[in-house]
């Protein structure tokens, strides 16, 4: 009887150990896929255009030949089956006052056509449903797949994804973003004031 109890305990321990060891592997696989999807965006010919469009829901997107910085993030996650249009809209619908839409744009309700394409809304969503990480001047603090936001001159918010590639000159991780000339991979992590540092790896 004692032997059976010990065997049962050992099996339970083994199952838990396997689950724990598999979890980091699954997280790493997600990060690898996200970075790959982000870098793939730099191979697309996209004209910078932040015009308002009425788009389908769910899985709505503006015309594929245009986009802004948020669309790089949205499209990279969507390549992995994560629809930020739906996730942001549903979270805003439940907790509208947690988002800056009223304070910044004077809105009183959600708009599934544009809410997810605004940097401040993505910042709020990632802070609520992901990890908020320290803003650091140490490039090693920024890991592949992390999301970084900046404030550009003229109070223009910006967002990009940390890649797994590093500048041979500065040692800084290269960033996938669209600052005006289409999606690109650049050494610009510390070129502007960083306003946020996030990590979002959804569980489902």
Folded structure, characterized:
A hairpin with a 6-residue loop joins strand 6 and strand 7 (184-186). The protein has helices spanning 2-41, 69-78, 84-94, 101-105, 119-129; strands at 47-48, 66-67, 131-132, 147-152, 156-166, 173-177, 184-186, 193-199. The protein is of the alpha+beta class and 204 residues long. Helices cover 38% and strands 19% of the residues. Helix 1 (2-41) crosses helix 2. Strands 3-8-4-5-6-7 form a six-stranded antiparallel β-sheet. It is built from five helices and eight strands; from the N terminus they run H-E-E-H-H-H-H-E-E-E-E-E-E. The model is unreliable at 2-22 (pLDDT under 50). The radius of gyration is 20 Å and the shape is globular. The chain has a single domain, classed as endopeptidase fold (from Nostoc punctiforme) (Alpha-Beta Complex), CATH 3.90.1720.10. The longest helix is centred in the first third of the chain and has 40 residues, at 2-41. Residues 1-21 form the signal peptide. It comes from Litoribrevibacter euphylliae. This is DUF1287 domain-containing protein. Keywords: Signal.
Short description:
The protein has 204 residues and is an alpha+beta fold. It has helices at residues 2-41, 69-78, 84-94, 101-105, 119-129, and strands spanning 47-48, 66-67, 131-132, 147-152, 156-166, 173-177, 184-186, 193-199.
Topology:
Blueprint: H1 2-41, E1 47-48, E2 66-67, H2 69-78, H3 84-94, H4 101-105, H5 119-129, E3 131-132, E4 147-152, E5 156-166, E6 173-177, E7 184-186, E8 193-199
Parallel strand pairs: 1-2
Antiparallel strand pairs: 3-8, 4-5, 4-8, 5-6, 6-7
Helix pairs in contact: 1-2
């Amino acid at each position: 009887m004692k032997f059976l109890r010990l065997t049962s305990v050992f099996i339970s321990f083994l199952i838990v150990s396997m689950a724990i060891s598999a979890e980091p592997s699954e997280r790493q696989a997600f990060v690898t896929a996200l970075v790959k999807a982000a870098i793939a965006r730099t191979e697309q010919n996209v004209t910078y255009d932040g015009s308002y469009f009425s788009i389908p829901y769910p899985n709505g997107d503006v015309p594929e030949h245009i986009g802004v910085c948020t669309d790089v993030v949205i499209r990279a996650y969507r390549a992995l089956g994560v629809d930020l249009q739906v996730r942001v809209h549903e979270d805003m619908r439940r907790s509208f006052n947690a988002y800056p839409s009223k304070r910044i744009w004077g809105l009183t309700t959600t708009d599934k056509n544009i809410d997810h394409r605004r940097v401040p809304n993505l910042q709020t969503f990632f802070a609520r449903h992901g990890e908020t990480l320290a803003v650091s001047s140490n490039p090693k603090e920024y890991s592949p797949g992390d999301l970084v936001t900046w404030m550009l001159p003229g109070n223009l918010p910006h967002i990009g994804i940390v890649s797994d590639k590093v500048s041979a000159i500065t040692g800084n991780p290269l960033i996938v973003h669209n600052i005006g000339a289409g999606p690109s991979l650049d050494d610009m992590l510390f070129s502007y004031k960083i306003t946020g540092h996030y990590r979002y790896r959804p569980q489902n």
